[in-house]
Amino acid sequence: MKKLQAAMEYLMTYGWAILIIALALGVLYSLGVFNPNRLKPVGCFLPAPFTCQIVSVNTGGVATIILGQGSGQTITINSTACVDNTRPNNNGIPSTSSDWSTPIPSISGGSLTIPSGGSVSLTNIYCINPSGSRFNGTIGSTFSGSLIIKYTVGSSSSSTFYYSVGSISAQINTQ
């Protein structure tokens, strides 16, 4: 009889411990601790002279970023691209014209001027998935890819285009 009682106490003690561990794991899972998307870095990174900050990305793959520059000259943004890393060619530039977005707000001619030390909010930047269509995600999902800025330096009559190729990793946070 004493062996039976000892066995029951042993099972009850470990049973309660297993139940507490299962409850703790359930709470951690519900809080999203085991979600691998939480481990992805979120932000946009461009080489000098640009700085960028993600404001929002909606479920339709439309990004809004704040773009700043400190080149010492006025820069004119002609277009932007937010694409999956498989879309750019060997030079890091998207070869398909549908991958490019015209910056909004834009001035006449479809370009946007940023003075040195200034910044501007760029809206309606369409993020493109590997198949070439707009990225569609749910709130909490993450888009990772390349952020490319096509620009000219100095006077607006300059016809030499430069490209700044960086990266973007954004969590979808609005409808």
Give an account of the 3D structure.
There is one protein chain. The chain is an alpha+beta fold and 175 residues long. The protein folds into two domains: 2-34; 37-171, Immunoglobulin-like (Sandwich), CATH 2.60.40. The protein is 17% helix and 37% strand. It is built from one helix and nine strands, in the order αβββββββββ. The chain has one helix spanning 2-30; strands at residues 43-45, 50-57, 62-69, 75-83, 100-101, 112-114, 119-128, 142-153, 162-171. Strands 1, 2, 3, 4, 5, 6, 7, 8 and 9 form a nine-stranded mixed β-sheet that branches. It starts with a helix and ends with a strand.
Please render the helix and strand layout as text.
Elements: H1 2-30, E1 43-45, E2 50-57, E3 62-69, E4 75-83, E5 100-101, E6 112-114, E7 119-128, E8 142-153, E9 162-171
Parallel strand pairs: 4-7
Antiparallel strand pairs: 1-9, 2-3, 3-7, 4-5, 4-6, 4-8, 8-9
How many strands in all? Answer: 9
What's the assembly state of these chains? single chain
Report, as a whole number of angstroms, the end-to-end distance.
65 Å
Per DSSP, the total helix count is 1
- Corresponding CATH architecture of the largest domain: Sandwich
| Class from secondary-structure proportions | alpha+beta
- Give the DSSP E fraction (strand runs of 2 or more residues): 35-45%
Main sheet overview: 9 strands, mixed
Q: Assign the CATH topology of the largest domain.
A: Immunoglobulin-like
Order of helices and strands: HEEEEEEEEE
pLDDT below 50 for ≥5 consecutive residues: which ranges? none
Please tell me the total number of domains.
Answer: 2
Radius of gyration equals 25 Å
Basic shape: elongated
Which CATH class of the largest domain is shown? Answer: Mainly Beta
- Overall average residue pLDDT: 83
Give the helix proportion (percent range).
10-25%
